[in-house]
């Protein structure tokens, strides 16, 4: 989760970025893809039929907070929210959780049962937090969406855990691992849940907190191995997403975004082909990092991203998933030419993701109450058509067929296919590059 929340500002600008043809190939190439559990092969993620897939999703938070439920259910039916996610072309939802919510699920939840005189969320009445999560997972699977569960923090609250670690005095590492294995058992056989993001944004705090390859109780990559192997012992088909730290060898970056340590000390799991590395990346609205300045260009930003996380994919070591990135709904924060600006950063990131199709991503966030939120306060539609169109240009919709698994949701759906049209302002190149060729070229 981001460090700070910012207020929106009003401004106008034009989106003039030309994306490669790989952005166009996602929708057509994805037909029939995404079945079952997923696994890795070098930089690629493959479905159970060994077809290439790309995670292009969004975050929907709330379960990890003191409200202990996904935000927006006070205004909208959860099925409507998930239908909107799919209509916007996303294929995966990252859902943050807390240890507290898993171990002591909330019961007094902020859920509305009527809206505009019509019933909503009727089947959630009387359920606790984990049972509501079950319903969200079930319906997501029934309309062809995938789910990644994220341990966002230990105690219920906002943002990342304050101590920078995956454990606290109240929730020790053993509890964290037990929570994950409990969830692995709960969703065993349910291929809608493709994986677990083991912990959100490990980072240092005043010289303490998480570190990579430092040894001891706070060595994050070793803890990820312990938790990952415990999960794989329950379900060897789950993807395990391992974020970076913020500091490695004196080089500071975003919380969870620094994966430089992988080059020297990679995570080693007992089951091959289930590891994905994850980074988070934000613009100067969060913090005025040194790489945002009057000399910032697409080339300088690409160098920063490659050094901290993209190199893992480039070298074919493992897939890389950008689990969080986002901006406000102000036009100038979505697209701008000013060096070092938020708009420049976001437009460059979209371009980078378009030209690096082996990098997977989830936008932060869906939530209408968030300054970076895609949807409006009523969770009906995107606030910014410009931002929605830019994200749609790098989408990878999956087949709408429910995932193969031995787990049945018991929920039927008659949702239309309704894939968004490609934005008219994106022009394909004449090369006609296919997704398959682009993925294998990188």
- Per DSSP E runs of 2 or more residues, the count of β-strands stands at 17
Q: Summarize the helix and strand pattern as letters.
A: HEEEEHEHEEHEHEEEHEEEEHEHHEHH
Rg for CA atoms: 20 Å
Please summarize the sheet with the most strands.
8 strands, parallel, barrel
How many structural units, i.e. domains?
Answer: 1
Number of helices: 11
CATH class: Alpha Beta
Q: Please tell me the overall pLDDT.
A: 87
- What are the low-pLDDT stretches, counting only 5+ consecutive residues below 50? 1-31, 401-442
Q: CATH topology, anyone?
A: TIM Barrel
Q: How would you classify the helix and strand content by structural class?
A: alpha/beta
Strand coverage percent: 5-15%
Strand order of the largest sheet: 4-5-8-9-12-15-16-17
Q: SSE layout and pairings?
A:
Blueprint lengths: L21 H8 L9 E3 L2 E3 L5 E2 L2 E4 L18 H10 L4 E7 H5 L10 E2 L2 E2 L9 H14 L3 E8 L19 H14 L6 E5 L6 E2 L2 E2 L10 H15 L4 E5 L3 E2 L2 E2 L22 E6 L17 H17 L5 E5 L6 H4 L7 H14 L3 E5 L21 H8 L42 H7 L1
Parallel strand pairs: 4-5, 4-17, 5-8, 8-9, 9-12, 12-15, 15-16, 16-17
Antiparallel strand pairs: 1-2, 2-3, 6-7, 10-11, 13-14
Helix pairs in contact: 5-6
